[in-house]
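queue> pop job 88
queue> type: inverse folding (structure -> sequence)
queue> payload:
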């Protein structure tokens, strides 16, 4: 399982999400799932639908349990986690998952995306 995790601000555009998804995914196996914070699922659903990929909402507890490679002050303040994108990707990829790409940031700074790989079953 290859998961693209997203963090984003309210009012993010689909084009920002697409841009950061393409940036984070460069040089990695194809993404099989998308993930974000549970309360942000509705805003990410249009991208999931456009890509034909399943979307997972990650609970606040699961986000907080994942150590992240990067630290955003905004993310720490709002969510208590260094990167919602990284934490979402790793949490959704399951136990033993590893981060392939730390968060990348869209050019308008509205969205971040990180890629994680789950342990093959």
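queue> result:
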């Amino acid at each position: 399982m290859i998961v693209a995790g997203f963090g984003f601000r309210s009012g993010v555009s689909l084009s920002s999400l697409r841009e950061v998804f393409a940036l984070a995914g460069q040089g990695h196996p194809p993404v099989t799932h998308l993930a974000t914070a549970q309360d942000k699922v509705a805003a990410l659903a249009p991208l999931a639908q456009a890509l034909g990929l399943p979307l997972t909402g990650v609970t606040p507890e699961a986000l907080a349990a994942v150590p992240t490679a990067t630290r955003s002050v905004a993310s720490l303040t709002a969510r208590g986690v260094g990167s919602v994108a990284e934490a979402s990707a790793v949490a959704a990829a399951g136990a033993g998952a590893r981060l392939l790409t730390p968060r990348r940031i869209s050019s308008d700074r509205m969205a971040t995306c990180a890629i994680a790989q789950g342990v093959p079953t």
